[in-house]
Inverse folding.
């Protein structure tokens, strides 16, 4: 049990040291991700704002006028 | 002892992943929120809209490049509120659509029954006529509701779009609100109908909503095109800014002793794709002017949408090149330093621009 605790503590210290070596994403990499996400957003917007379901609306309304 | 070593190795592996995971999260968080992280100062400010909706004027002196990237900045809270309104409108639209499909089916059946009732005044036929009136009213009300919810969806998208300037967004919202009122007025006319209403009253109500819809369609189609084009414009601005940054990175990599011929070629191709997207985007913008009359709107907006799709496609192709560029950069020696130094020089350049503008 004591050995295990020591091992975990050593691992923690090493991990902290290693964390200093791992570089966070740079601004350039963030810009690339941002552009990628914006391009995907366009697809979503096209889907969200699709007006094709309303294309026949005037025809349908004209039918109501004739029906009565 | 062996057990302890295994535990040590496992723990080491798990803990070593922690910083890497955080580094990834930094990118992801920005993708989701569109919000800058604390390490990235906000450079793009034309006007700020706070959580209560009041716009505050932005400082007059801004970095030149920054002005191109975002047309306005909206408080995160307001973006969230707009997204919630979009979801509500979407849900209401779906409900109205479901009711509309049901009533459409009933109307088709009633239409067939009505055909049998020509010059027949039996009790059964009188009942059919009353049913047709009731279904017609329901159909017209659902039609109005679908149009209103479509306008509400669009409005929430405009409210949360940072690629539109404050003036553009206000103008679009005012037009959308005007059309919502117009359809609501038509909805009031329909609500007053009942089984005793005359055929002429029902025809009049259908005509009222149809006329309102024809005018609304112009605003709807034009606004959707404008909104999408603004988004494309935003991506183009970001890509152009990135292209300049990539050129600085190439310079640094060359100084570090790398052969950058292929990389330069890829960046040139990336630039070409962005230029092509920009041309399509500008053509789409010019087309809007023609989309003002109800008769022409469908034809013109079809062309605008085509241009938008082409611009979008060019941006996709540009992004593919960008991925190749980034992968090539990462393979080169001194890439991390080059990426970081390019940003430092960018910050310096921006400070210089700010200083020069202040002096002027």
């Amino acid at each position: 049990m004591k050995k295990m605790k020591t091992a975990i503590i050593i691992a923690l210290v090493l991990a902290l040291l290693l964390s200093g070596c791992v570089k966070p994403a740079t601004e350039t990499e963030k810009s690339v991700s941002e552009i990628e996400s914006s391009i995907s957003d366009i697809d979503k917007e096209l889907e969200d704002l699709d007006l094709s379901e309303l294309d026949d609306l005037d025809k349908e309304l004209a039918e109501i006028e004739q029906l009565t | 002892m062996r057990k302890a070593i295994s535990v040590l190795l496992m723990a080491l592996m798990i803990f070593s992943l922690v910083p890497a995971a955080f580094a990834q999260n930094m990118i992801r968080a920005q993708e989701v929120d569109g919000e800058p992280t604390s390490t990235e100062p906000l450079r793009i400010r034309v006007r700020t809209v706070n959580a209560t909706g009041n716009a505050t004027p932005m400082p007059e002196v801004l970095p030149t490049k920054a002005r191109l990237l975002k047309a306005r900045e909206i408080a995160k809270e307001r973006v969230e509120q707009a997204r919630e309104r979009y979801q509500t409108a979407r849900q209401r639209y779906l409900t109205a659509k479901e009711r509309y499909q049901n009533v459409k089916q009933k109307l088709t059946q009633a239409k067939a029954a009505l055909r049998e009732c020509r010059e027949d005044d039996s009790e059964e036929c009188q009942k059919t006529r009353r049913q047709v009136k009731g279904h017609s009213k329901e159909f017209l009300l659902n039609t109005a509701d679908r149009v209103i919810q479509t306008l509400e969806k669009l409005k929430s998208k405009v409210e949360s779009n940072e690629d539109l300037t404050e003036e553009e967004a206000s103008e679009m919202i005012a037009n959308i609100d005007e059309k919502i009122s117009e359809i609501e007025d038509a909805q009031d006319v329909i609500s007053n109908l009942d089984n005793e209403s005359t055929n002429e009253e029902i025809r009049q109500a259908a005509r009222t909503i149809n006329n309102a819809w024809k005018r609304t369609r112009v605003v709807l189609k034009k606004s959707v095109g404008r909104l999408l084009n603004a988004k494309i414009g935003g991506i183009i601005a970001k890509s152009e800014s990135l292209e300049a940054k990539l050129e600085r990175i190439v310079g640094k990599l060359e100084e570090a002793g790398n052969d950058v011929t292929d990389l330069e070629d890829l960046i040139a191709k990336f630039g070409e794709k962005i230029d092509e997207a920009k041309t399509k985007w500008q053509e789409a913008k010019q087309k809007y002017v023609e989309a003002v009359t109800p008769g022409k709107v469908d034809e013109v907006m079809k062309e605008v949408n085509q241009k938008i799709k082409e611009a979008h496609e060019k941006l996709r192709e540009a992004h593919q090149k960008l991925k190749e560029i980034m992968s090539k950069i990462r393979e080169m020696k001194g890439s991390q330093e080059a990426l970081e130094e390019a940003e430092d020089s960018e910050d310096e350049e921006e400070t210089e621009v700010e200083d020069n503008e202040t002096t002027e």
